[in-house]
Amino acid sequence: MTITITDTNQSVSNPTEDQRVVDKEYILHVENLNIYYGENWAVHNVQMEIEKNAVTALIGPSGCGKSTFLRSINRMNDIIPNARAEGEILYDGINILRDDIDVVALRKEIGMVFQKPNPFPKSIYENLTHALKFAGIRNKGKLDQIVEESLRKAALWDEVKDRLHQSALALSGGQQQRLCIARTIALKPSVLLLDEPSSALDPISNAKIEELILQLKKDYSIIIVTHNMHQASRVSDKTAFFLNGDLVEYDRTSKIFTKPSEKKTEQYISGQFG
Ligand SMILES: Nc1ncnc2c1ncn2[C@@H]1O[C@H](COP(=O)(O)OP(=O)(O)OP(=O)(O)O)[C@@H](O)[C@H]1O
């Protein structure tokens, strides 16, 4: 899959410029990223590299800019009228903040799952095939194969294989969220952005989502926003602590939770504020 750039027909897999950094270890390089909502400076000059096939957790108190940062990675802030991002987010060597990026193609490569499960009011099967058909895949055998593969990867196949043509809305909240993950996976992304994916779920569904995240990192690079410190420490390899729009500290999760370098990080993870 490629991100076609409208003016030049340039693709992310074969970039001709901005090829400063394409390496094996990192999937994204964020440089001097600033995000504004009108006059409100929500994310301040963030510099960060996101590892491939790892889970990166974004933590911090409410309003610190975690979701704003996450949404900028697949240009979801574009739909907010007064939002503006400056700086660079390099994916495969291309700055995805450029005006000429095809954001629809980008969002297939960098998929997003939201806090509240949001399946379409259609069958389980159609939830998975809707975007695929839109992308031109019509062959029933191929669609069936992608549906099964995606549901298996999302650890949902065994629970739904006998009711693929029933409404997705009849699934439990936890199953709906795994369906949303399967729907994103069906488009064969490289990066999964998860915005508090299990905060609306019961503890058992939460545990299943966490188990799933650990399995998925073999195939995807995952960035997760979470308010749950235990969740961040259980599922992530690296953790970024945001405060008032600043990236205060970014390190191995084990270090952040045992021996953070910054006083503010220590105060936050020990529950002294936020
Ligand atoms: N759609 C929006 N329009 C205007 N300002 C916004 C919008 N979304 C967020 N903001 C502002 O941007 C700043 C960062 O908000 P953001 O939602 O990114 O924080 P957060 O850390 O994800 O918070 P939470 O944990 O509560 O979801 C806040 O000042 C917030 O008011």
From TrEMBL:
One record GO biological process: phosphate ion transmembrane transport
Domain of life: Bacteria
InterPro entries: AAA+_ATPase (IPR003593), ABC_transporter-like_ATP-bd (IPR003439), ABC_transporter-like_CS (IPR017871), P-loop_NTPase (IPR027417), PstB-like (IPR005670)
GO cellular component entries: membrane
Pfam families, A to Z: ABC_tran
Sorted UniProt keywords: ATP-binding, Nucleotide-binding, Transport
Domain ABC transporter: 28-269
GO MF entries: ATP binding; ATP hydrolysis activity; phosphate transmembrane transporter activity
Gene3D superfamilies: P-loop containing nucleotide triphosphate hydrolases (3.40.50.300)
SMART domains membership: AAA
The protein's name in its UniProt record: Phosphate ABC transporter ATP-binding protein PstB
Organism whose genome encodes this protein: Perspicuibacillus lycopersici
Lineage of the organism: Bacteria, Bacillati, Bacillota, Bacilli, Bacillales
Gene name of the record: pstB
